[in-house]
UniProtKB/TrEMBL annotation:
Top-level taxonomic group: Bacteria
A Pfam family annotated for this UniProt entry: XdhC_C
Taxonomic classification: Bacteria, Pseudomonadati, Pseudomonadota, Alphaproteobacteria, Hyphomicrobiales
Domain XdhC Rossmann: 77-218
Protein name (Swiss-Prot/TrEMBL): Putative sulfurylase large subunit (Molybdopterin cytosine dinucleotide biosynthesis)
InterPro entries on file: MoCofactor_Util/Proc, XdhC_Rossmann_dom
Length: 237
């Protein structure tokens, strides 16, 4: 590998940005492509699919062979609220391969006894998220029902472009939340990205069922990320 390509690839990985090393197997030349970089034609389609799947692959394009070595950051799930839903969600996230962490300033809830083997921060979300910034490979699930805890986290998640942002609460609760987020500076387009009520509509009632619905919706959003943007671009061509 070209040392410059290796340096560029490692920089993207440290920053939790997806990148792909494209190698032309005919002449051995390679280059680093970042997710979102424009690549035309069938090769561009193959690269987009590689980013979505997270799997490296061989592509035969117009008589030429390319190896697509894709590097996608591990998906991260940040849960705001050390509640019963979070307790049920933790083992599901681990099984699905998500790095999960919980943030809740309420020390009576955020205890290692309730959340063993989970990254747990008994601090205000805005303080932790300054130290541990959100990014497009992070999902945020807000489940405290307390605006003092929830709203700052939601505002930061929308600004960071997280691939999933969900918030617990009824439609009436969400209507009030929308007004508060607008006051914090969030736009209508940003607020429209929030999944609320949170989770896929499976009729969930118990905390465990809600956790199943949330995890399913997170996975769906992760596997579909970028598809709507691609469709919108196609309409403008």
């Amino acid at each position: 590998m070209d040392p410059y390509c290796l340096k560029k690839l490692n920089a993207e990985r440290r920053a939790r940005r997806a990148a792909l090393l494209l190698t032309d197997l005919g002449d051995g030349r390679d280059r680093v492509i970042k997710e979102g970089d424009p690549v035309a034609g069938l090769l561009g389609d193959a690269i987009s699919q590689a980013f979505l799947s997270g799997k490296s692959s061989l592509a035969e394009i117009e008589g030429r062979s390319f190896f697509l070595n894709v590097h996608v950051p591990p998906p991260r799930l940040v849960v705001i609220g050390a509640v019963h839903i979070s307790q049920a969600l933790a083992p599901m996230a681990k099984i699905a391969g998500y790095d999960m962490e919980i943030i809740d300033p309420r020390t009576a809830f955020a205890t290692p006894e309730r959340f063993p083997d989970i990254k747990l921060f008994a601090e205000w979300p805005q303080d932790i998220l300054e130290q541990r910034p959100l990014d497009p490979y992070t999902a945020v699930a807000v489940v405290t029902h307390d605006p003092k805890i929830d709203d700052q986290a939601l505002e930061r998640a929308l600004k960071a472009g997280c691939f999933y942002v969900g918030a617990l609460g009824s439609r009436k609760t969400h209507t009030k939340r929308v007004e508060r987020l607008k006051a914090l500076g969030s736009s209508d387009d940003e607020i429209a990205l929030i999944h609320s009520p949170i989770g896929l509509d499976i009729g969930a009632a118990s905390p465990a069922e809600i956790a199943v619905a949330v995890m399913a919706e997170v996975i769906k959003a992760f596997r579909a990320r970028g598809l709507q943007t691609a469709r919108n671009l196609e309409k403008t061509v």
